[in-house]
Amino acid sequence: MKPNPASDHVYFNDGFKCSSISINTNLNEMNGDANGAGSGNGSQGSNEFILTDDGKKIIPPMKPMSCAKSWLQERSRKTFKKKILHKRLPILRWLPKYNGADAVGDLVAGITVGLTVIPQALAYSGIAGLPAAYGLYGSFLGCFVYIFLGSCKDVPVGPSAIVALLTFQVAQGSWQKSVLLCLLCGMVEMLMGLFGLGFLIDFVSGPVSSGFTSAVSLIILTSQVKNILGISAKGTTFVEIWTQIIHNIKDIRAPDTILGITCIVVLLIMRLLPSCKVGPKEPNLRTKTQNIINKLIWIIGTSRNAILVIVCCVMGVLLHSYNDGTPFKVIGYIPQGLPSFALPPIHLNVNQTITGKEESFLDMVRGMGSGLIVIPLISLMENIAICKAFANGKPVDASQELIAIGAANIANSFVQGFPGTGALSRGAVNNASGVRTPLSNIYSGALVILSLIFFTPYFYYIPNATLAAIIIAAVVFMVEVKVVKPMWRAKKSDLVPGLVTFVACLVLPLEMGILIGVGLNVIFILYSAARPKLSVDVLTSPGGTEYLMITPDRCIIFPSVDYVRNLVNKQSLRNNIPVVIDASHIYGADFTAATVIESLLRDFASRHQLIFFYNLKPSICNLFESLSPTEFVVYYQEQQLDELLKERDYRQSKTDGTAAATAIALTV
Fold first, then answer.
1. Transmembrane stretches, by residue range (predicted)?
2. pTM summary value
3. Domain count, the chain
């Protein structure tokens, strides 16, 4: 006898009790009335199939052209809905409401970010192993694209220190591969966004993200030490670079070292300026002069990178001589004007490769390996960090951000840019400058264009040590030491994937390090799914009968079913009384779980011990019942347990009553 939960019992969803929605069942609609009046109200029939006299559904024949036409009409109807258009083109949401206050806020923020992005672009191109011009090439066209597709006002698209380092490890300093990598990463990001794969970022946990970011910060800092010391040091990993630095330390250049250290100290001091205020703490209590002074101090502190680059560039011009050059190394020649608009290189000749062999498009793509997946994920991670930091509790559409970043990178690849994303440091500047909409990107992009057209001849004299100081002063604060202590207090096991990711990224290539961290995190998740917690309580029914209540804390799926079966058998043998499995937390199951439940029922039947399921979802009940040849009993009200025991002539022996106390509770 197998009770059918759909007919013999009622499954109550307590959520409907507090709902304000009235749900009525119209039997005339369900069964149809004689006059066909039921067809006028309520549900309508489907035109996708024909119901024959014998009750079978058949699809009416359609011509291929008619089928294609109807599909296109349906897709266009769904695609061009106002809600979908506003979701995929966020500019349609804010542009109709754009006003003068928004324009002023965006202008100030755009210029401020532009003054920040120019020196950062010059510096980050060095991290990518490319000439300084390529950082500027990737800092303007993507900004314009993001205006139309970006959903976050605070994201300034352009080069990023982390993505630049990943680009160097994948492209090995080849501008051709870097530009092609920009195109391919943009395409991957675009496809991930269109297929709604933004959730993949959720698999990069906080500890893994902290370990990765800290390791990258140390690698970037290490890669710039050589420019501070004025020596050469090749390598892609933390260990390789330090080995080269120690080997070439004898070639240290005093002018570069003095200039570099001085620039770092100046930048760290200027970093404190935005927090310095003249006058009372409350802005309303300050005078107009005090507010102007505070604004000037804030502008100086925020534009510290641009100010330092200008000062050092002037110093380079004044100290330059035609015979001896400058006393320190400079970035050198940068082509004047905008880059040509062209397809990224898809072939390398023997003179353009490190190995001296020709490389076809497939060879270039094959050499990029896992970087084509890791760089889009890390780009999304950086971008989402900006969105969440300034969202003020609003939801963030990760898939739309993927589409926006992907389109920006695709556009940048046609003007010889390398992969980029939103940088958190520039995002903070953007927000603090009072940005109102993504239109601020047009002003920062315009400043980059002006610098390429008019100022590149003067960039020749910018010292390498100055750019290295800008990078070091920025990334030193990305080492997330503060998270270790709260993580240790909250859950010590979370330190394991974080530390493993940190060490792996220092020793191995970055894409391998992050994949190892994510893989270890997934193993932790799978282990947790395979070992659910079971609460075991010896309780007494309203009729005075003792029974064993076993409560799993999560769904039963194939990795955990054998573990659950063994524990249930173990506890039931220890307490020879009826067993009730509380299924309130079992919201899902699979075929493997159903087969193991069948085996569990056989185990109980062989030793003539009763087992019942309490509050099992009807859908899961049907799954278990379909494979259970023995008695499978489900009940939904506590008082039904005594009735079920009485139906089966169960009588508790005295030994059973003393076997366990009614108040015992333990967790397995």
1. 155-171, 178-201, 257-275, 296-319, 371-391, 442-461, 467-484, 496-527
2. 0.73
3. 2
